[in-house]
């Protein structure tokens, strides 16, 4: 089984386990579902971050997912939009796909960083700006090889 399928199974298990625990603890269906979605998303995003940083080492991604699950138990409120933005910025700067950012990627980053700026996360707009500047000056991976 490849690592993508394994992380989907782990994410769904963590999502359903967190949701079940919340339901058994007496929380309603919607708060329990929300907690499960947050838990699953945090585990998946940790795995995705590690895959972007070190794409050749699958084990490091699963270690990151494990620690994210442990961290979610103690800090159950990750900022998922900021994690998503950081993952998108990392993909642009790291160029793990081998391609520069497409128009849709840039538009999504612009919207997401604008949303976070509107809600007080000014630092993410600066990070997005820096990623766009780096994207303009970094050579294409296909041209570099």
Descriptive overview:
The protein contains 7 helices and no strands. It is mainly alpha-helical. Helix 1 (3-24) runs antiparallel to helix 2 (29-53), helix 2 (29-53) runs parallel beside helix 4 (80-94) and helix 4 (80-94) runs antiparallel to helix 5 (103-118). The longest helix has 25 residues, at 29-53. It starts with a helix and ends with a helix. The relative contact order is 0.10. The mean pLDDT is 83.
* Count of helical regions: 7
Q: What does the average pLDDT come to?
A: 83
The backbone outline, from C-alpha atoms, is: globular
N-to-C order of helices and strands: HHHHHHH
Assign the structural class, choosing from mainly alpha, mainly beta, alpha/beta, alpha+beta, or little secondary structure: mainly alpha
Provide key terms for this protein:
145 residues, mainly alpha, 7 helices, single chain
Topology:
Elements: H1 3-24, H2 29-53, H3 58-74, H4 80-94, H5 103-118, H6 122-137, H7 141-144
Helix pairs in contact: 1-2, 2-3, 2-4, 4-5, 4-6, 5-6
Describe, in short, the structure shown.
This protein has 145 residues and is an all-alpha fold. Helices cover 79% and strands 0% of the residues.
